[in-house]
Amino acid sequence: MGHLSTHVLDTMNGCPAAGMQVELWRHEGHELTHLKTLRLNADGRNDGGPLLDASTMATGRYRLVFHVAAYFRARGAALPEPAFLDTVPLDFGIADASAKYHVPLLVSPWSYSTYRGS
Question: Taking the mean position of all CA atoms in its chain, how far away is CA 5?
Fold first, then answer.
């Protein structure tokens, strides 16, 4: 059964990004529809399980927005104003609603990497 999940690792501190705020949006033509906002748990994941489950998965274009600067500032990082990375928006597509889509983010205040995980 299909689902969407995420996991964020803080590469500056070598730990999960506990407490980071993440938003999920769906592209509707040229508009974005907000689906949910969450805070990551101690493991850098959503406490409530998948962001989309089998009943809510649908093909289409989506955006995850990771609030990077706020997370690092809350951890005591001295960031310039404006921060190099404030939010990280990741746009991606779901082509098969019955598949598993995992979108991990590896992040520091100055860089990030993502991929389609398993």
Answer: 9
